[in-house]
Amino acid sequence: MNRAPLKRSRILHMALTGASDASGEAEASGEKPFLLRALQIALVVSLYWVISISMVFLNKYLLDSPSLRLDAPIFVTFYQCLVTTLLCKGLSTLAICCPGTVDFPTLHLDLGVARTVLPLSAVFIGMITFNNLCLKYVGVAFYNVGRSLTTVFNVLLSYLLLKQTTSFYALLTCGIIIGGFWLGVDQEGAEGTLSLMGTLFGVLASLCVSLNAIYTKKVLLAVDGSIWRLTFYNNVNACVLFLPLLLLLGELRALRDFAQLGSAHFWGMMTLGGLFGFAIGYVTGLQIKFTSPLTHNVSGTAKACAQTVLAVLYYEETKSFLWWTSNMMVLGGSSAYTWVRGWEMKKTQEEPSPKEGEKSPLAV
């Protein structure tokens, strides 16, 4: 059979993608070329890193900047929830008005669903509030270690609430994380930069992150399994519940006396923080979609390492060898736990079921 001559551009494309002929095996099977997939993954992971790290530094500026001098962490958190709520509703409206423009579920506020989601929303409020309070009182460099007990609480709560046991090797990695946490606290104290209040908020944030992950699975049914609907209801409930807290804690009075309340720069930074808060949920899902949950966890650990180094450089801090060791223990323990759990899940899937491949004595 005669074959049509190949153009130079086609030959180059075949060489780069590994296709064996003009049609290309990748195109025949409907798969994207390797280079294109690699580029997409690199872009998605980079986007996740940039948004996540930028959000932490921006929140630190809003919560504890000497130039702002704003002591209203609950208001900052409330405003970010408000921005997320408006973005969800705006994208839902856009999806209805211009079908095909954006893939977003239809959102209508149902008070019955809001009540069902309310217990999870209380945990969600604790998670985002304690995260911000931890960041307010500790440095960005210590922020990762301060909130490093999430994995430990995952194991503990899975046993207490779900009666799920954990392997010895997974428990060993948890021990490394706990050791890194205590060493980090010790070294922060030795350097005179330890905030007991910030560390306590970090531990509470870790607890709430674990509880949030467990209860999210239980509540998803009420929102038809849609993460975006759950995000919408969580943030609506949070906006309502934050209002009495703003009054009780006197933050409305602090806002009234705030010198930059009418500053466009201040509100721009506040809104940008809300946009980052919304975007991190989207890019997290995107990273899992283009890679895998295991790769996402590894990427998160590497991002935390880069964030710590950037913080030390940006704030011109000097840290001891043991301080860096505590960070490596936390990051190493977290990575090891992710790898162990992934290996155990793969092993479970590959193991044949009992008597698989064997004929039953009663079989004909």
From TrEMBL:
Pfam families: TPT
GO cellular component terms, A-Z: Golgi membrane
Keyword Ribonucleoprotein appears in the UniProt entry: no
Ranges in coiled-coil conformation: none
Gene that produces this protein: SLC35C1
Transmembrane regions: 38-62, 74-96, 116-134, 141-162, 168-185, 194-215, 235-252, 264-284
Biological process according to GO: 'de novo' GDP-L-fucose biosynthetic process; GDP-fucose import into Golgi lumen; GDP-L-fucose salvage; negative regulation of Notch signaling pathway
Protein name, UniProt field: Solute carrier family 35 member C1
Boundaries of every Sugar phosphate transporter domain copy: 40-334
Membrane-protein topology: Multi-pass membrane protein
Claim: Cell membrane is one of the keywords in the record: no
Highest taxon, organism lineage: Eukaryota
Molecular function, one GO term: GDP-fucose transmembrane transporter activity
Principal subcellular localisation of the protein: membrane
Lineage: Eukaryota, Metazoa, Chordata, Craniata, Vertebrata
Signal peptide: none
Native organism: Propithecus coquereli
